[in-house]
Structures are given as structure tokens and as C-alpha cells.
Amino acid sequence: MDPFITDLCSFAESEGSRVPELEQPMALLADSLGRVSRLEQSERLSLPVVDDHLAAALDVAEGPVGDLLRNILPDAGWAQPYPEHVGEPDMDVFRAGFGYAPVVGSPENSYRGDAFPLYGSEEVFVGAVLQGPNIVYPSHVHRAVEVYWAASGTAGWQKGDVWSRHGPGATILHEAGVRHATTTGDEAILMMFAWVTDPRSIPVIVRL
To answer: What is the domain extent for residue 171?
Structure first.
């Protein structure tokens, strides 16, 4: 297999052994990675938030997640989510301060915007997220079972009705349909994510 996919698969297997609640999600991820294929390279798109904060975030990224991101992000393109919310003041602020880089996923999913994944898969969606300083990712839900790994930066996290703070090295599991949100302070947060079920599901903002 491709060296990056081999390393990512080994990481998934290690995480499944390390964290009991991740055993099933990481088994799904590792199994799916055995069937991915490298896609033809497309134009590498960037965003202002990426130009402003990615280099510094990568410099201090910790652990195996930091190593994975440093290895793959030079090849990845970046996009903004939620184009359907353009023109809503709070979402415009959020979108300007947030970017995601698809690494493994479906190139046919138009919701993902203009950035295409580096590896094709119809089973999982894996990538990086960069959320700039003082940015609120509003409460939202989706069908996908999602895992986040924080590589650098600290943020406040909502899961259901509970808020907590997490920094580098944290692993956060969002089960299907669980409402969650992320709020940064004075530093950006860089994370890797994996949707191990329903990779084509569309997140829905929860307006309370």
C-alpha cells in the first residue's frame, strides 16, 4: 500500500487498541483503508485561514497525528464547508476562519466543495481541519460516526449538553446524531478527523 495509507492504517489499529470506545470505529477505518486508491493530483487550493495559521500549527503539532498531517498536508487542498449558509453573518465569520482538507473520500460528493481528496473511498471520509483563533463552529449534527484527534491548539468542545476543553493529544468521538460544536480562543486548532460511517452525510446546523 501507499506509505501514508500504511501509516494511517497502523495508527487506526493502534487507536482501536488504546481506546476501548474506538475499537469498532477504528476497525471500520482500518478495513476500509485497505481498499482506497490514490487519485490523480488536482490543483492544490488554499484559504486565507490556512495561509495565516497552518505553518505555525504544523510546527507544534504533536504525536503520531502531527506526523501524519506533516506528511500529507503539503499535497492536500483546502475548502470551506456550508456553502448553503453564505450570507448568514455568523456563518460567514465561521467559514472565513475554518478550512478542511479532504485526504480520503469520494471525489463525486459535490458538497465537499472545490478541494478533492488525495485517495478515493466510498466507505470513509478522512482529512484535516484547521479552525482559526476566536472562531465558533456552531452546534451541528450528522449521521456519520466521527472521530477527531487534536494535533495542536486547544478548544472548547460541546458534546450533547456537556462542554469541555481539549488540547493536543485529545481524541474525541461523536456518535451518529450527537450534537457537537467547537470554539477556539486565542490560538488556532489543527485536527485530523475520520468519518467511519455515512461518509456522504451532510452536517446540519442546529439553531436553538
So the answer is: 3-205
